[in-house]
Structure formats: structure tokens, C-alpha cells
Amino acid sequence: MTTYLPQRAPWHRPLMVFVAAMAVLAVVAAIGVVADPRILTGVPIWLKPFKFAVSFVLYGITLAWMLSLLRRRSRIAEWAATVIVAMGVVEVAIIVGQVLRGTTSHYNETSALNGALWQLMGAAIMVLFVAHLVVGIVVLRQPVADRAGRYAIGLGLGVAALGMLVAVPMVLPGQAPAVEGIAGAHSVGVADGGPGLPVVGWSTTGGDLRIGHFVGLHALQVLPILAILLSRFLGDRLDEHTRARLLVVAGGAYGVLTILLTWQALRGQPLLRPDTLTLAAGAALVVTTATAAALVVARRRRPELALAA
Question: Nearest to residue 153, comparing CAs of 213, 55, 257, 68?
Fold first, then answer.
């Protein structure tokens, strides 16, 4: 994986400035969670800015690292990354601004201003999604790593895009609660703001569409880390082709898991209280993934044979 880790170009400056700003915001928001007694939708009012800041730190630094691996500079990718930064700034600025005003940012159309800000957030998210796809296409068109690394990066970008898409049901008309001025919800079967898991706040009494969204987005980190671990600890036992096939299995399973978690949420089930059908689907995913991985390993090329070839 020596072709996978070293950077080939300077890290994208706007992304790194954005990451630094989000790291500062995460600290400020964490202090706000402790120091500000206000509660909004059942959680500390500064919890949402904290979660978004941490998420953008991870997302931004991962994208910057991927761009640094490109063998040839791509102005298209750099411009797309700058657009991502701009849209991230818009989204976070609205979230923090609404916290300072003591109201919600998401789904809030209780006034003309709140509605305009919510619509602006929605437009920013769509632009960010398109820019993410552009970066993904550019990265995939250049050989940035060995085969396993390329699959890890490509599948990570793809499943992260899926993670963005599974958030769409939150704003569909059927998801809007019967509350005037509220244009969506992340909980299914219960009102937003009810009992939730610590820190993440995912509902413990109903479905929560944020779970699949969260899991899908972080494929961007999970799959490259898996590729690095396979190379680090099993590189002398598994050839490059085998590791690449294992990444395909892992990426496919991760994508299906994202869909499964969203399907569970849409049926109004809390994450930790799945019904028999959800458990059966989860078990089928585990068995299928384990079987596919075992078949890949069983068909691997022996190191001595690979050397002889």
C-alpha cells in the first residue's frame, strides 16, 4: 500500500481551512452543550452544531487526503472541493445562526425567514451532493492507489453518496408531521425530540432516518481504513487481487447495510429493537458477506505461486 498512503500533491487549502474552522466550532459547540442550559427538540441546543462540525471535520479531511493522492492536478476536482467548502459554510452558518436565535434550522418553515433559511440549506445540500459526485468521478478516473486502494476509495465515495440520498425521505411530504410550519422529520412513527441514544440522539422509541444517513456517509473513512488494515496485517498473506475482491465484498455489504438501516427506520423501528423481519435481513446480510469473503480468500493466489508467475 505504499502507493496508497503518500500524498502526491499539496492538500487542498480551502478544505483544510474549513476543517480547522469546523474543529474550532466543535470545541465551541461542546462548551455550549455543557454551559448553555437551553433544550431544543429534546436535546441541548448546541448538540446539532457539534455533530455537524465533527462530521464536516471527518468529511473534509478525507476528501483533502483523497485529492492529495491524485497523480495529476485536477482543477475540476479542486473547484468542486471549493464548492463543497462553500456549501458547508452556508449550512453550518445557518445551523449556528438558528441556534443563536433559539430555534431549529431543519424543517423549520414557521416564518418567512425560517422558511427561506431552510430552503437555502436544502439548495446547498443538493449543490454539495453534485460537487461530491464530481470529485468522485475525477478521483476514480486517475489511478490513485493499488487496486484494493482504488476500490476502497471508489466504493467509499459511492456509498457516501448513497448515505446522502437516504436522507431524502426526511423531507418528503409524507414525512412532514401534522404541525404547522414543520416541513419534515427524521423520526418515523414518533415525534422528533423524544427519547434518544446518548450523543447521537437517535430515537429509542421509533424509527430514525439519521442512522442510515450517518452510516452511509462514513463509508468514506471506513472502507479506506479497511484497505489499509488489510495491507498492513494481511499483505504478506493476501495478494493484491484478493484484497481488492474483499474490498468489493465489504463495500457491497456496507451499501446494503445503509439501505437496511434506512428500511428499518422507515418501518418505525428503533435501531436497538428490530423485529423478526429486520433480524432475518440482517442475518442474511452477515451470512452472505461472510460466505463471499470466505470464497474470495479460498480462491486467493498463494504468495509463492504469485512470485513464481
Answer: 68
Residue 136 in grid coordinates: 468522485
35: phi > 0 → left, psi -120 to 50 → alpha, else beta; which? Answer: alpha
Instruction: Report the candidate in 110, 22, 24, 55 with the shortest Cα–Cα distance to residue 221.
Output: 55
Nearest partner of 93 among 84, 105, 82, 83, judged by Cα: 105
Encode pLDDT of 73-125 as tens digits: 889 999 999 999 999 999 999 999 999 999 999 998 999 999 999 999 999 99
What is the torsional sign of CA 198, 203, 207, 212? negative
Eight-state DSSP code of residue 42: T
Q: DSSP H helical segments within 142-239, as ranges?
A: 147-165, 210-217, 219-234
Q: Across-strand partners of 182?
A: 108
Helix/strand/coil for 172: coil
* Closest CA relative to residue 154, chosen from 15, 2, 4: 4
Q: Judge whether 83 and 90 are in contact, CB under 8 Å.
A: no
Strands 187-188 and 43-44 turn out to be unpaired
- Inter-helix orientation angle 240-266/210-217, to 10°: 170
User: Which three cell numbers mark 213?
Assistant: 444517513
Q: What is the pLDDT of residues 21-75, one digit of tens each?
A: 999 999 999 999 999 999 988 889 999 999 999 999 999 999 999 888 888 888 9
Q: Exposed (0-12), middle (13-18) or buried (19+): which is 218, by Cβ within 10 Å?
A: buried
Is 115 within 8 Å of 108 (Cβ atoms)? yes
pLDDT at residue 306, rounded to an integer: 45
